[in-house]
Automatic annotation (TrEMBL), chains A, B, C, D, E, F, G, H, I, J:
The gene is queF. This is NADPH-dependent 7-cyano-7-deazaguanine reductase. It is found in: Cytoplasm. One of its GO terms (biological process) is tRNA queuosine(34) biosynthetic process. The keyword Oxidoreductase applies. Pathway: tRNA modification; tRNA-queuosine biosynthesis. Belongs to the GTP cyclohydrolase I family. QueF type 1 subfamily. GO terms for cellular component: cytoplasm. Substrate binds at residues 56-58, 75-76. GO terms for molecular function: preQ1 synthase activity. It comes from Anatilimnocola aggregata. The active site is at 34 (thioimide intermediate), 41 (proton donor). Its EC number is 1.7.1.13.
Amino acid sequence: MSENPASLLETFDNQFPQRDYVIEIICPEFTSVCPKTGQPDFGTLTFTYTPDQKCVELKSLKMYLQSFRNQGIFYENITNSILNDLVAALEPRRMKLVASFTPRGGISTNVTVVHEK
Amino acid sequence: MSENPASLLETFDNQFPQRDYVIEIICPEFTSVCPKTGQPDFGTLTFTYTPDQKCVELKSLKMYLQSFRNQGIFYENITNSILNDLVAALEPRRMKLVASFTPRGGISTNVTVVHEK
Amino acid sequence: MSENPASLLETFDNQFPQRDYVIEIICPEFTSVCPKTGQPDFGTLTFTYTPDQKCVELKSLKMYLQSFRNQGIFYENITNSILNDLVAALEPRRMKLVASFTPRGGISTNVTVVHEK
Amino acid sequence: MSENPASLLETFDNQFPQRDYVIEIICPEFTSVCPKTGQPDFGTLTFTYTPDQKCVELKSLKMYLQSFRNQGIFYENITNSILNDLVAALEPRRMKLVASFTPRGGISTNVTVVHEK
Amino acid sequence: MSENPASLLETFDNQFPQRDYVIEIICPEFTSVCPKTGQPDFGTLTFTYTPDQKCVELKSLKMYLQSFRNQGIFYENITNSILNDLVAALEPRRMKLVASFTPRGGISTNVTVVHEK
Amino acid sequence: MSENPASLLETFDNQFPQRDYVIEIICPEFTSVCPKTGQPDFGTLTFTYTPDQKCVELKSLKMYLQSFRNQGIFYENITNSILNDLVAALEPRRMKLVASFTPRGGISTNVTVVHEK
Amino acid sequence: MSENPASLLETFDNQFPQRDYVIEIICPEFTSVCPKTGQPDFGTLTFTYTPDQKCVELKSLKMYLQSFRNQGIFYENITNSILNDLVAALEPRRMKLVASFTPRGGISTNVTVVHEK
Amino acid sequence: MSENPASLLETFDNQFPQRDYVIEIICPEFTSVCPKTGQPDFGTLTFTYTPDQKCVELKSLKMYLQSFRNQGIFYENITNSILNDLVAALEPRRMKLVASFTPRGGISTNVTVVHEK
Amino acid sequence: MSENPASLLETFDNQFPQRDYVIEIICPEFTSVCPKTGQPDFGTLTFTYTPDQKCVELKSLKMYLQSFRNQGIFYENITNSILNDLVAALEPRRMKLVASFTPRGGISTNVTVVHEK
Amino acid sequence: MSENPASLLETFDNQFPQRDYVIEIICPEFTSVCPKTGQPDFGTLTFTYTPDQKCVELKSLKMYLQSFRNQGIFYENITNSILNDLVAALEPRRMKLVASFTPRGGISTNVTVVHEK
């Protein structure tokens, strides 16, 4: 993984900053690696945010998420770290990230993290 | 696209203005063109509004939405601009527009915009 | 259609008027005629009400809804007029009517009307 | 039907009375007889309650519900009477009963009754 | 079953204690034995909690739940006892456990228990 | 149960006997009683037949099936006996009966019986 | 109903008669009247045919099916008669019609009729 | 596990041996133990058979399947061995067993075994 | 539309011509224009083919299908013409095209065309 | 990727070689890289085979499939090559592999390859 994957995130100007509105982005093809077992993890990341001055550019978000492909990282860290990176890049009015991981050992895990400005 | 597609929108008189009620209109056949790639985009637009004095005539709404067929426009602009056009034509008590676009590069986007009188 | 279809509605006494409770009645076989095109419309009507002294008798409700079979009437009028007829007949504590019509020209419409005593 | 079917209901002591928690019991095999037509009715009863000192024993609940098998009784009476019997037997902190009956003449009916201590 | 199955539960440090967030863990392969009939019970346990200083380690949770495999225990006890064990081990800010059991005699049961710090 | 429930079955003349065609009748509200446990059984009966000279009248089929409501009879007997009664009454070119019973003890049973003229 | 509704059916020339191919037309908004009870019936008609020299024009098929709206006719007659009318108008290589009617008295009926040239 | 779990299987006489018919039995609550990892496995077993002189008694089948609860056995052995035991006990005209196991490491396995007399 | 849209189709060499295998390509975003009404049509095209020496390059297929975006063409022509273009470009061992169009006037149409070498 | 990923595949002896039976293995977490765009691809691989003397060990199959994680390879090559590797390792009586890939540019692709001994 590159030193600072968050630098991959690009933004464009929100053309409607006077309005409070919601953008939901669903990424069902997230994959990373479990740091304990070395086995790949798979999940769906759903971002829901109200932009302030900036919106995230979708292709750059895809490249950013792909930077986790071969990185060893736990579920809770994935969710909190990615939210933190997006919040730093977008400074949104509010943002929620729900990460739903596929079953391991018959057990599924979903992590939900919220940022309020 | 014609100079002013909003002029395609026609209205009829709300026969029950003394009552606060809700009309939901689901348009699953919206298509426009991505201004960056030139590729067509596809989505479902769902309007939910409380009419004041005017309701939107459905056939005119269909013609209005078809005026975007070959227009290059981004997701956020589609949703905000169409809401603005409808609000200008109908002056509703409140109106919500949810635009759900089909996946691109494995990523789906929904935009939700609300107008309160 | 008969002069006054609302006269078809029959009621029976609510045996539990001291309790606030909810009756939901789902009628997926509603059909009327579009006054503009002369084409039949089809929809599902869902009534949700809290009875006061009277409940609607189901067979009479069916006959009442069938009186619209060959009547030309718009979506908004269907929903508001039927709610008004039911409210007049039942004097319920509250009543909601959701009318969901099948797609026309690729567009579906749902109308939701609420009465509060 | 026996004189007093409610006597079939048995309870056991709630082992966790200091905690407010919820038990949901779903009975999709309820059947009784329509008193007007003599035809059988079918429905799903869903009980949701917060026990106080007593919980309902499931096998006794099944026997109690079976006592309605050949009894002529209307939808509203089924729902209100069964809730009353359960409330009398359990004295719960709160209890909701939703009864969903299968379509008759193309029309489905659901009745929802709530008891608060 | 071992004397104290709760000792099987292991935790790791919550790396984001300054943030209120939610972890949902879905375990569809729970099984125990009915103490009255000796027959196996099957259910899905869904934990939803906000960690404080500790998160539950998933493999240890699996081993803990497996310790009930041949234990005779009623639905209400399963749900309340397991919540109590998790609360003792994790001291979460809040935790909910929903246990959904498969039908017995045509009747399904769900138990929902909540702990607030 | 009446002595000879099959006498309840009524037929009407097939108006299209020169054509081989198929009538499927789905009856999801069948109920009888288990002769061993005395508990009610519930199932869906699906008849698929090619009429020869006679078709079954639907209301009489309903009354015939209701005659099993309080009769003690095993799954295999239900399916074979009912097929035999229908075959005797209709003399169809061919007939299939699929009986799907709801779970008991976590186990569901379907029985499929076919008659060829 | 008009004297000869089949005269409503219009055809257009099959542009690809040298190829055996299949056209499926699904009409979920069929309604007629039960001649015994006078109550409306509702169903979905699905036509599957291989055209020879002629294809059915869809708008004319819709008008033809609407001619049954207030006609009293039994399920088996609907299906056989409509197939006969279509076969007479189109002379297809083969045609199947499946008519699926909504439940009456808890019982659903599907009729399947096939024509081979 | 008992020495010879197949001895748990009981049969009753097929009352309709002159007819070739099919009994399907669906058991979604099968569980055993993986001999390699010691972890529990879960699956659905679906039996489909044509009885000759004997049918399997359902309660005895349940007890027989429960005898695998704490036994270490691989997927292929489960399916083949259970089919063999049933075939020995019932001598059916034909029998199929489909065993569908829940995912392990993101991979699901189904095994299908058929016996023809 | 360009003069000869079929020229947009590009192929690549089948690396496994010694094996008969099947490629299925599902294109849910097809749109063209009805030549009679001028209204847009929408459908899903599903290609299923066994390649001989050539496979279709997916991006070129997308561009080819987009060439129909503003072309007036009937359902049957779409399906037969597109199959013909693909067959000419790929010379497959066999190819099937199923085109499923969204409802118009409450009626859906699917066209299935097959080519055998 | 290692030089020879097929060497990762391990087998165990089929304990029931005298019987023709079917093992289906569903792997929904396959991922590789598109050699043209460098973007990750995602798909579900479903193996269906009749073992002869050898069965594939599931954990080794998982490791083998993971060896494609960062390899650039086209859909058709994935499916044919993986089938070839499995056939070489298992020498099955017959084997089918269906590979279903997620949409790219609004288009989904499934490839089905069959080997017969």
